[in-house]
Amino acid sequence: MSFGKFNWSGSALIASVSGVALIISGAAHAQTAEDERVLEAVIVQGSLSDGLNRALDVKRNADSIADAVVAADIGKLPAVNVAEALQRVPGVTIVREAGEGQFISVRGLGPNFQSVTLNGMPMAYNENIRNSGQSGRQFRLQVLPSDLIDGIVVTKTPTADLVEGGIGSSVDIRLLNPLERDTFLSVSGYAGYEERTDKVKPNGSIAAGWKNPANTFGVMGGLSYSARDVQFDRLRTGWTDATIEGLGTVRIPGDVQPYLELENRERISAVGGMQWRPTDDLELGIDGFYSLFNNETTERRLTYYIPSQISRLDLSSAVVEDGRLVAGTINGARIRNYAEYLDQAHENTQINAKASYDIAGWTLQPRFSYASAKSDLETPILRVQYRTANGAGGNLTFDFRGDPVGDAKIRALYTDLDLTDPSAMIFESLAVRPINSEDEDKTFTFDATRDLDFSLAGVNVTRFKAGVQASERFRDYQRRDRSNTVLRDGVTRTGAFLGAPVPSNAFDQSIGTFQPWTNVDWDLFRSSYVIAGEFDGVNPSASALAATSADLQNSYFIEEDIKAAYARFDFTSQVQGTPLRGNFGVRYVTTDTMVEGTIVAPVVNSQGNVVTQVTPSRTSGSYEEILPSLNLTFDLSDNFLFRLGAAKTMTRPSLSELRNSINTNSVTVTNIFRLGAAALEDPTLNLNASAGNPELSPYTSWNLDASLEWYFDNFGAFTVAAFHKDISDYIANDFQTRTLAFAVNDGSTLPVDILVATPVNIGDATISGLEFAFTNKLEMGLGISASATFATSKLELDKRGVGIQSASIQGVSDTSFSVTPFFERGPFEANLSYTYRSDYLTDSGAVVTSQPTPADVVANYQKGYGILDFGTSYQFTDKLEVFLQAVNLLDSRQTSFAGSEAELTEIHTFGRSLNIGARYRF
To answer: Are 732 and 696 in contact (CB under 8 A)?
Structure first.
């Protein structure tokens, strides 16, 4: 990949910022040299403006283009975890789950493209065990509480000594160094209120640090507890073509599914560290964190079947607008009552040990880290299905008229069946799915640094740094599926099993006319069923069940060995009288992978019967990359900096994408097990699956960056940055039909043709954009912190049998911004914070796949979305502060659509939350 491939728009952005810098350089040439301010110690209690100012200090003194948030900043804004603390950083957007921040995207690139470290060392990744989808290398930032973090630095142009892996950014979460602050003890507590559930939960934290009078030994520690009872409603559907007698071919809604999810979330986290400086030349340290995030989830869902029942449409009720059936009544519609229960536990542990020794002009720094992320189902996924009898009567009325995407509401969805009457439903199945995932990383690094003082061609080399890294990672993912559940002896299933009422406020904001229903009583189901012949109950772990051929196909083990070496030179110079400082380096990385899985296929034996053939698979792979980087900082004046950056970066494929396995739909597995070939007669049966590809290559990107930074004398700054990324080996799904083996309850094997999506390297992509940030405060106490990002993207895919086709990249919003006005006067503070991102692609469908593609698939988009938060505090004494924080003040809802806003696909409602509490510093 050469720099010549950069398109005009990306180069023009960089050139524009450079041109402005040259103008300022000419005007400010005679001003004084670089500001030598040293970073202040970060304190937990301080004003919002204190935190913002310290974050600007970090940015100003960085070796490359970077942004930061620090402890005081985090504490003043409504942020319950690290993801939410980062959402106001320029170029950063977050992905929410039930209204809570979970993942981050930077400059349009999603969570998989961010390298997340703890004090500079790699972290382990929790896996998604909520369903069959997998998140791979996405770090779940919700496991880290914001109140135990000292600061976070988002580096957007890398230096050679940073751990590679983030084309989007490198995010370093920093814990406190005990010797860098005075002895302290602080506690905080608050009551957290959730509007949708009308429940209050206690939350709190304690943090302490101590160092001896000689400032040679210090320790620190912290403990945090948080809890939430949340309810969120999701209304989901899709759109498809149908030919209806009397109407012709029109677009009609897919099956409409109201999901109600109730979650009991609880997180316990701890951090700790020790720092010892026995001599001026030697320093030893150890730090780490532990987090246990539990999430008990109850999902209650109805499925209103439309495409499979459309022949029963009452034509007199049909409303067609712009070729779409937006309202109507189906006579004798079919409905499924579905429920799911699980109890997730995500456990994270990390320990970092380090040393620093000065000898003969060198600073030697060995470091070792151990990171573990375990994701287990303490209660496995339990899925129950009821349905109405075919043609049982019950007319279904739906109404999508108006603007459901813009209004986040549809007019009507109901049937004249009494869905609170258990006798109206027929029991189908109880399925059990335990999943256990373990991710572990061991990393050793060794860095050697030496100050230099020599000149070469007018460049003064000031420092040399070199080092090596060795990392070993493994991922063990085990999944089991069981449909052979039976009632305990002497137990009879009654109407009470389907007698649990659904909260009265369910879908009150997203559906105009709706109807109440009753759902599964989980206490009865869990106590009344067993897994026949295998387990006395329905709560086994994956290890408690012997793996079937289907289980082996859904499970995998991956090892990844990484070796890296780098060299970096720091230098200073002058360009036409303008001071210049910078760094140049090269990082060489090798990656070796080993993937163990199982290939399962139906074959015909010598007796002419179809049987399942199980073949263990072991695949090895390797690749290497050379990653140069160059960062330049021009000190145009005391307060003006101009930066340039050029680098090659890489992001490894998601761990889940490397698996040698195929994941099929659980409902499909259950129905084929129960019904055999008869299940294939159901037109709603999902015959799609996803697979991995152990032979994937990493994404690589050439990056150009420029930044102009104007720091005000007393407080604040205005900055503008331009960026361009040219990405190769982009990974997208290739769809192919494969014959898979499904088990049937009579012991036979049923071969079924399934459309399997397999990730392959088939594309190149570019992302270009501009970032603006402004922070300032007036004498009267009014201030503002704001940022905005404007981005464009292009993806070119080499589709099999089609050639090059263009598309957009998932997750890239054209516009995103945050605005935080604040007021500080004496002991009183208040701030409003509004964050927004415009429409972005969420599921590329046929747009980002190679041929052949599933019939009738279009790209799905998330509608532009903004959220308004509020925070205020009052400092009664130097030690005591009370605060109030409100999240989602406007009660915003998220919507999605397919292709155009005329085709709604999802409405997501999660409500407001309120925290009120106090902090005390001893």
So the answer is: no
pTM: 0.87
751 prior amide bond cis, ω within 30? no
Determine whether 375 is exposed, middle or buried from the number of CB atoms within 10 Å of its CB (0-12, 13-18, 19+). buried
Supply the pLDDT for residue 34: 34
Q: Which residues of 440-449 are buried (b: 16+ CB within 10 A; e: fewer)?
A: bbbbebebeb
316 SS3 class: helix
pLDDT at position 5 over 50: no
Q: Is 604 exposed, middle or buried (0-12, 13-18, 19+ CB in 10 A)?
A: exposed
Sign of CA dihedral 514, 518, 523, 528: negative
Give me the pLDDT at residue 799, please: 66
Average pLDDT over residues 428-435: 93
Helix (H) or strand (E) segment spanning residue 17: helix 8-28
In which residue are the tokens 């004046």 written? 637
Q: Give the β-pairing of 169-174 and 114-118.
A: parallel
Q: Which two tokens stand for residue 531?
A: 């897994």
Domains and CATH numbers, the chain: 3-921 (2.40.170.20)
3-state secondary structure of 46: coil
pLDDT tens-digit profile of 742-767? 888 888 888 888 888 888 898 899 99
pLDDT reported for residue 77: 59
The structure tokens listed for 93 are: 């957007």
Taking CA atoms, 741 is separated from 603, 634, 788, in Å, by 9, 63, 51
For residue range 323-380, what is the model confidence (pLDDT) as tens digits? 999 999 999 888 999 999 999 999 999 999 999 999 999 999 999 999 999 999 999 9
